[in-house]
Amino acid sequence: MRRRFLGALAVVAVVISGCATYQPVPEGYSGPKAVLVDSGKYEDGSKAQLFAAVEVDGNQIENSFGASAYASQGRGFSLTMAVTEREVPARPMKVTLRASHTTAAPIHAIASQLAGTFFSVEGTVDFEPKPNVRYVVRGELKKGASSVWIEEALSGQPVTRKVTE
User: Fold this and answer.
1) Residue 149: closest CA among 83, 53, 12
2) pLDDT of residue 55
3) What is the C-alpha separation between 5 and 133, in angstroms, rounded?
4) Which pLDDT value is given to residue 165?
5) Exposure check for the chain: N or C terminus, fewer CB within 10 A?
6) What is the mean predicted confidence (pLDDT) over 88-103?
7) Where do the DSSP E strands lie in the chain?
8) Which distant-in-sequence residues (6+ apart) come within 8 Å of 21 by Cβ?
9) Which pLDDT belongs to residue 10?
10) Which is more confident, 76 or 30?
11) CA-CA distances (angstroms) from residue 12 to 5, 64, 103, 104?
């Protein structure tokens, strides 16, 4: 029970932490680029599943967890999911992925964690995007079997290993 509570607090702290300033494609970059998009789905009006890229090469980037928290501020238990899309250089990189439930109110996240209905997984994968290709972070959240990965948007084929817990 204590582990679940501490896990929920960690997720809440990450969600409400400061804004990321690292840009995967630096200003003035003229090399080949790809697009990496987060994804998610609502479970109800106050809870959703998000699948996001949260770091590139160890640097925190803007992501759907922060964007959704910002979009939901002042709305009580009503969640507004905001999916982030960003360009990345078409070169090998390490990307940290996170799949997790998210809620509009931190107390709802804690209550869901304590009830055993709040799942998450995070890990770093090797990713080598091709120029002018669109990629999507996908995942699934299930008790004892949560996972997250990157797939090519057009074909739906995974291009990274699945991070599984």
Assistant:
1) 53
2) 97
3) 40
4) 86
5) N
6) 95
7) 33-37, 39-44, 47-56, 59-60, 85-89, 93-103, 120-127, 134-140, 147-152, 163-164
8) none
9) 45
10) 30
11) 11, 14, 9, 10
Give the Cα separation of 82 and 70 in Å (integer). Answer: 9
- Which helix (H) or strand (E) segment holds residue 4: the answer is helix 2-15
Sign of the C-alpha dihedral, residues 158, 53, 128, 26?
A: positive
Dmax over CA atoms of the chain, in Å, equals 51
User: What separation in angstroms does the CA of 147 have from each of 128, 134, 143?
Assistant: 20, 21, 11
CA dihedral 44, 153, 120, 42 (to 10 degrees): 0
The one-letter code for the residue type at 56 is: V
CB-neighbour burial class of residue 56 (10 A; exposed 0-12, middle 13-18, buried 19+): buried
The alpha-carbon radius of gyration of the chain (Å, integer) is: 16
Q: Tokens 């928290």 appear where?
A: 69
> Terminal CA-to-CA distance of the chain, rounded, Å?
18
CB–CB of 13/66 below 8 Å?
Answer: no
Residue 11 belongs to what H/E stretch? helix 2-15
